[in-house]
Amino acid sequence: MVRRVTDKDRLIYTEFLKKNENCHFMQSLAWADFKKTQKHYALMSLDECGNVCGVMLMFEQKVRRTNKMHLYCPRGPVCDRNDTAVLSELLAEAGKLAKEIGAYKLTLDPDITEDDAVWLEFFKNIGARIGDNARDNAILQPFAVYRINVDKSDDELMASYHSKARYSVRVSIKSGATCRLGTREDIPTFRALLAETAKRDGFTARGDEYFYDMYDALGDDAVKLFMIEYEGEPIAASVLVRCGKKTWHMYAGSNDKYKETLPNFLMQWEMMRWSRDNGAPLYDMRGIAGEGDKLSPIEGLVRFKKRFGGDLVSFVGRIDIVYDRIADAYVNTAKSVAALLRRLTGRK
């Protein structure tokens, strides 16, 4: 049985998510609280005894320059890997919901790899469109990440690093740089360091309010701010998110002052040790580009993350379940025309 989640279901939904090995923070109701400007819908599958056996969180996504809307399920649904009956139940209810609200399709980018035969076979059998990553990839999560099992002693963890990372962590420790857990009051300092990195590397940094909202919605149990300091001065900082037995390295910033202390290596070391010590042995370094995905390589980022060992995990990427094929064709045509006009006019 599947039912739509209400406030009274929040506790059992959250407890199931945290205990399931396939949990992801983007399927949490706290994440829906954070994404408060987007309308969301949550589903929950129950067995005959009333036990939760699967959950699914979806957001409405408006299609620019059209009157169309679809549903987006980031890194979900969450259920046991081989339980296609629960998966089928959740998707059937999602289809009913889509019809009610006028969504022409459901887009998922589940936490499954390219070689997950059970789920891929299931999606093929129901006629889903798999791997259509050329369109709208801005709404998708990273196609490939580095994940590290940090359930090791300090010596074992250090030994799992490549020699460059081992050397750099030790240099940073010996330099006198230190790490502390920050609080909500440290967000402006973190944001300033992030802004410096954004300017240096050519990307746009999110504003202070984004991080205040994240901290408040997910809570200080789930959002951890790591501050690296040298002689009392903040020189690097990072945001780590925890859900169940997993952590995700989300954002990081640093300045060029005292860069010889190699603060980013110390920061990774301390975040991994904290994850291990707090019952989250799977550490996710989040997105990389260039290996196992469809984007252009960012070589420096790839090299940095590879130095900490771990496994390269390549996800299946985009999966579309289309309910209204006429609307889908219309949207795809409209996007193709818009892309052509941008190229011809030089507009972004």
Question: Helix and strand layout, with pairings?
Answer:
Elements: E1 2-4, H1 10-19, H2 29-34, E2 40-46, E3 52-62, E4 69-74, E5 78-79, H3 84-101, E6 105-109, H4 117-125, E7 129-130, E8 144-149, H5 154-160, H6 163-175, E9 178-181, H7 187-201, H8 208-218, E10 223-230, E11 233-243, E12 246-254, H9 263-277, E13 282-287, H10 299-306, E14 311-314, E15 319-322, H11 325-345
Parallel strand pairs: 4-6, 12-13
Antiparallel strand pairs: 1-2, 2-3, 3-4, 3-5, 6-15, 7-15, 8-13, 8-14, 9-10, 10-11, 11-12
Question: Any idea what the shape is?
Answer: globular
First-residue to last-residue Cα separation = 46 Å
Percent helix, as a range, is: 25-40%
Count of DSSP-assigned helices? 11
Question: Rg, please?
Answer: 21 Å
Poorly predicted ranges (pLDDT <50, ≥5 residues)? Answer: 290-297
- On the 0-100 scale, what is the average pLDDT? 91
Largest β-sheet summary: 8 strands, mixed
Order of helices and strands: EHHEEEEHEHEEHHEHHEEEHEHEEH
How many strand segments? Answer: 15
What do these coordinates show?
This protein has 348 residues and is an alpha+beta fold. The protein has eleven helices and 15 strands. It has helices at 10-19, 29-34, 84-101, 117-125, 154-160, 163-175, 187-201, 208-218, 263-277, 299-306, 325-345, and strands at residues 2-4, 40-46, 52-62, 69-74, 78-79, 105-109, 129-130, 144-149, 178-181, 223-230, 233-243, 246-254, 282-287, 311-314, 319-322. The strands form two sheets. Strands 1, 2, 3, 4, 5, 6, 7 and 15 form an eight-stranded mixed beta sheet that branches. Strands 9-10-11-12-13-8-14 form a seven-stranded mixed beta sheet. Strand 2 (40-46) and strand 3 form a beta hairpin.
